[in-house]
Backbone:
């Protein structure tokens, strides 16, 4: 079987994602699609709008054959860590032939050249980066500006690609493949219709997840029905009806403000991503703000972007300290592969992978767990505190729920117990 | 003016408390009553059913002339610290002639003799205490049993008084008066109708606050109407209607479970009252429990009483570490007197006290605040996270709300702004 990997968050899975899966299959000639998906806390530092089991189900019903969970140690982190963790999971599985990601451009040659600079970090690039950081920009902004300036010397590279924010993750995927010396072949497909962060809906049936979440919170899920595959829509509806969403940062107001009110600048600075004085700004804002939105708004500066602040809040909420993070040895890649669900074809993939994968593949949990997995379980316990309607036992769903098994042929969801 | 002090929690103020205020006034011949009242977290380690401003208002409308706040550093603590802090506030005010407290017995001579033993801690008493602790009892239980055994040698003392739990606070008040070498004269009145902890209602119009809270949570405030002074009832009704109650531990479920899920045994053991292995039991229970009630139920043992666990949870919620507590110098007594409200007669008392009190009397807050007061403000910010309906700005009510001023003659409440 030819196997293509995709790196996703599906927050929630919409028509644009469906198009991406179809394109990935077509452009790589894949027989099967494996997705690495963030769990409950996402790359932009947000809790997922709906839990990971519901999101895995959407994926399985829309053409993905196997859904693996990106450990939270990588998911709510910088583009570089997120990309490295995701690619490392696919690489460790040992049966993935290609990775297919969306970009603003299909120009894989220029993208690869740019990512090579990110990996090599030549001195001149580093000097440009320092220069850009001095302007007070955030790290991601400074890095892409420095990269564009450095690459502009080489006429064969389309250096502007570095400044399109949606390409940066792609560059990081390519960099990760190189760092891992992976045999996986990269492929890119051009994004259509809507930018990643675009908030408004401009295409009749395709909009960004950001726009769909916005519509859901402001006018209800029904107004986003035409932007979602039928199964995504009914899964979301069922979850909302059961009181399990929609989830946003405001659902963690009590925990977050309590944590901030009892913190000191130095205790806060122990958490991953709380640095360069962010601790002082956060504590000051917490004394004035009434909502998490206010809190972020009042904390934000040119350097401390919305995303950076949200990621810091995730670390604070989960209690992820620099000390704990250092014990996870992130540079070594995930020490396990967690399966969230599979179709019949996915099951076949798992059979193949189990003989070849470089780390254990977990479909059930054992008593002794890697530290990185303990952090995933903690994230679920804390995430479950935010359900609008109290769900007794939700804290232990990570342990008690079996993996999802979908009969792809019937395209009907069921959870085997 | 002859001034009598009472030490109260008014959670909520009911007919029994009204009787106590009237008896205190009558038996001591007082012209004015000063109450020291716990703020938002109470001696048994619980959040108050309604905020401190509402409880102060009840007091002012039912015969108390001046309401002072017991700093939270003392309020959610052992009987000994609670009593010491409360008596120290009244002593520091310098205009209080007597303290009047309820007990199972009016026998002030025996109570004084017993409290003298608590202060002196003779070696034989300490040996008995160690013996009782070895039996696996909680500290309060062991202390009262040891005290009763020690006092049994002296026939002139009614040693059984030590074993009635409702007397222990009284003994601690007497001990505190002695430690402070206070000129305040103790007086006791016999409790009527209902024990402190009694959960069921047996008297037609008097029941314990415990029974009233139980009725409120189980069948609604209306079923407790006949047990409350009219003004208490309407204050509670108004607060509930505004979405500010009733408050119980469950209202802090998200914050508390989040804190426990992200704690380690050693980080948890830093908090006041988390000792002797309680940290391990709490963390184990947090993995199983769905509610705060379950959590306490699953943690509790013969030694770790419900009250001890609740007090530990309060420390955890407020982030009160042993380190921070040591910096508060509790043995020196409160470093300020915080006024929550007064009647016209109370205002006259404040005028007298302001010239004589041994610590500053605060009716408004200044920018520079004692550490102990910072802890009170933190407690309010965290308490306000538990209101059933979100109250924007509630975190800063401690700073923005003026003290209550009641016209005793009209007996109508108003907040002067």
Residues:
């Amino acid at each position: 079987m030819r196997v293509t990997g995709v790196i996703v968050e599906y927050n929630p899975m919409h028509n644009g994602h469906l198009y991406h899966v179809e394109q990935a299959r077509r452009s790589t000639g894949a027989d099967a699609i494996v997705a690495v998906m963030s769990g409950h806390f996402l790359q932009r530092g947000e809790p997922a709008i709906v839990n990971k089991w519901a999101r895995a189900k959407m994926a399985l019903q829309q053409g993905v054959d196997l859904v693996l969970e990106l450990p939270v140690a990588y998911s709510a982190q910088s583009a570089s860590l997120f990309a490295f963790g995701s690619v490392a999971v696919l690489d460790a599985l040992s049966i993935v032939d290609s990775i297919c990601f969306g970009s603003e451009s299909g120009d894989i040659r220029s993208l690869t050249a740019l990512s090579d600079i990110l990996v090599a970090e030549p001195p001149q690039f580093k000097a440009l980066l320092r220069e850009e950081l001095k302007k007070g920009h955030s790290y991601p902004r400074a890095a892409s500006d420095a990269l564009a300036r450095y690459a502009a010397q080489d006429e064969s590279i389309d250096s502007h690609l570095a400044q399109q924010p949606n390409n940066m993750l792609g560059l990081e995927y390519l960099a990760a493949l190189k760092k891992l010396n992976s045999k996986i072949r990269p492929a890119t497909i051009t994004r259509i219709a809507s930018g990643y962060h675009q908030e408004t809906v401009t295409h009749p049936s395709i909009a960004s997840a950001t726009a769909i979440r916005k519509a859901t919170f402001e006018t209800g899920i029904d107004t986003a029905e035409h932007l979602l595959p039928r199964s995504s829509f009914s899964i979301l509806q069922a979850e909302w009806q059961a009181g399990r969403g929609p989830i946003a940062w405001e659902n963690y107001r009590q925990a977050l403000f309590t944590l901030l009110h009892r913190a000191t600048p130095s205790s806060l600075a122990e958490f991953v991503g709380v640095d360069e004085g962010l601790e002082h700004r956060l504590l000051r804002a917490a004394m004035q703000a009434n909502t998490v939105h206010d809190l972020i708004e009042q904390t934000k500066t040119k350097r401390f972007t919305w995303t950076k602040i949200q990621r810091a809040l995730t670390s604070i909420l989960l209690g992820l300290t620099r000390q704990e993070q250092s014990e996870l040895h992130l540079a070594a890649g995930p020490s396990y592969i967690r399966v969230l669900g599979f179709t019949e074809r996915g099951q076949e993939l798992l059979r193949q992978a189990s003989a070849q994968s470089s780390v254990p593949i977990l479909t059930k949990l054992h008593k002794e767990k890697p530290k990185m997995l303990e952090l995933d379980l903690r994230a679920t316990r804390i995430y479950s505190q935010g359900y609008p309607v109290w769900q007794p036992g939700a804290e232990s769903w990570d342990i008690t729920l079996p993996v999802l098994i979908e009969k792809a042929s019937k395209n009907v969801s069921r959870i085997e117990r």
About this structure: The longest strand of chain B covers residues 32-38. The beta strands of chain B are 3-8, 32-38, 66-70, 98-103, 185-190, 337-343, 361-362, 404-406.
